[in-house]
C-alpha cells in the first residue's frame, strides 16, 4: 500500500484534520540509516509529523524540523515540503533503550527533555519563519502538540506512532493532527476531548492497519468527517551528484587543486539519505576546468 496523507474538515467545519500512513516512508529511512528500534521510532514519529506539516504548506514551500533534547540520540533533523516529500536522520542511529518492565521503547530517554523543538518554514520570503518550543516529554507527539499551540496559536492534538518488527524493519507507521478552527464551540471541544480519551492508542490503530480515513473517523466520529484531498507521501532526498559537483566547484580552483594533489579524489556522503558520492582525480580535473 502506498503511503498517503488525507486532508479533511469535520464537525460542521469547526475542525481541520489530517491523517497519514507513513509505513513505507519510515521504512526507507530505517533501511538507509540502519536505525535500531528506539531511534527508528523517534525518527519515524518525527518524519510522520513533519510530513503532515509539509502537507499543510503550498507550492514550493518547505520546512525543516530540528529536535535536540539533549539525549543520547543527538539531533533529529527532518525536511518536508508541500509535494509529499520528506527525509530525515538522527545523529546516533544506534541508540536503543527498552523499559524493562513493559518492554516498551523508551523514546523519551533517547530524545531527552532538556532542549528544544524548532520548525523553520521557507515560504518564499527573504527569511524563513522559525518557531521554537522547549521539549516537554521527548515522546515527539506531545512536543509537536506544544509547538503548534505555542508557535502557531492553533489548539491541536498530534498523535504519531511507529511499530518495529523483530528484525528491526518497520511494521507500521502513521498518525494524525486535529486542529480547532477559530470560533469552535465548547460542545465540539468537549466532544473531541472525550473522543481522544476513549480511542485506541495511535500505535494500536497503526498496528491494526487503520487507513488515514479510518483514523479520522475513530477520532472524530462517523458521519462527522469530510475528506477534501489525498496526497501521496514518500521518502525523497534532494541530493544528487550534480549538486555535489556544484558544491565542489564553488570551493574554487585552489581548493580543488589541493584535493587532486593531496588525496587524488573527493568523497561525500549525504546525511539525509546516506548516498555516497566518489569523485575520481579525472572527475576533479574536469570540475577544475569549469572554474577556469
TrEMBL record:
InterPro entries: Heat_shock_Hsp33, Heat_shock_Hsp33_C, Heat_shock_Hsp33_N. Keywords: Chaperone, Cytoplasm, Disulfide bond, Redox-active center, Zinc. Belongs to the HSP33 family. HAMAP family: HslO. One of its GO terms (cellular component) is cytoplasm. Disulfide bonds join 237-239, 270-273. It is found in: Cytoplasm. GO terms for molecular function: protein folding chaperone; unfolded protein binding. This is 33 kDa chaperonin. It comes from the Bacteria. One of its GO terms (biological process) is protein refolding.
Amino acid at each position: 500500500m502506498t503511503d498517503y496523507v488525507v486532508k479533511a474538515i469535520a464537525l460542521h467545519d469547526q475542525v481541520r484534520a489530517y491523517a497519514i500512513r507513513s509505513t513505507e516512508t519510515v521504512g526507507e529511512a530505517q533501511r538507509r540509516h540502519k536505525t535500531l528500534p528506539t531511534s527508528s521510532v523517534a525518527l519515524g514519529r518525527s518524519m510522520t509529523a513533519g510530513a503532515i506539516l509539509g502537507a499543510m504548506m503550498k507550492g514550493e514551500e518547505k520546512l525543516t524540523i530540528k529536535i535536540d533534547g539533549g539525549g543520547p540520540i543527538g539531533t533529529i533533523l527532518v525536511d518536508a515540503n508541500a509535494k509529499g516529500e520528506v527525509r530525515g536522520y538522527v545523529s546516533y542511529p544506534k541508540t536503543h533503550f527498552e523499559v524493562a518492565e513493559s518492554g516498551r521503547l523508551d523514546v523519551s530517554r533517547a530524545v531527552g527533555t532538556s532542549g528544544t523543538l524548532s520548525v523553520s518554514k521557507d515560504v518564499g520570503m527573504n527569511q524563513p519563519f522559525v518557531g521554537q518550543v522547549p521539549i516537554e516529554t521527548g515522546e515527539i507527539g506531545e512536543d509537536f502538540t506544544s509547538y503548534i499551540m505555542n508557535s502557531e496559536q492553533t489548539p491541536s492534538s498530534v498523535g504519531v506512532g511507529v511499530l518495529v518488527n523483530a528484525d528491526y524493519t518497520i511494521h507500521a507507521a502513521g498518525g494524525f493532527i486535529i486542529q480547532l478552527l477559530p470560533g469552535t464551540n465548547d460542545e465540539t471541544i468537549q466532544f473531541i476531548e472525550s473522543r481522544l480519551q476513549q480511542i485506541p492508542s495511535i500505535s494500536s490503530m497503526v498496528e491494526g492497519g487503520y487507513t488515514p480515513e479510518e483514523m479520522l473517523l475513530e477520532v472524530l466520529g462517523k458521519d462527522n468527517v469530510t475528506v477534501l484531498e489525498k496526497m501521496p507521501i514518500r521518502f525523497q532526498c534532494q541530493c544528487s551528484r550534480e549538486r555535489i559537483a556544484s558544491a565542489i566547484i564553488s570551493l574554487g580552483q585552489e581548493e580543488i587543486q589541493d584535493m587532486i594533489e593531496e588525496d587524488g579524489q573527493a568523497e561525500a556522503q549525504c546525511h539525509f539519505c546516506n548516498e555516497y558520492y566518489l569523485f575520481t582525480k579525472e572527475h576533479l580535473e574536469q570540475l577544475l576546468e569549469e572554474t577556469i
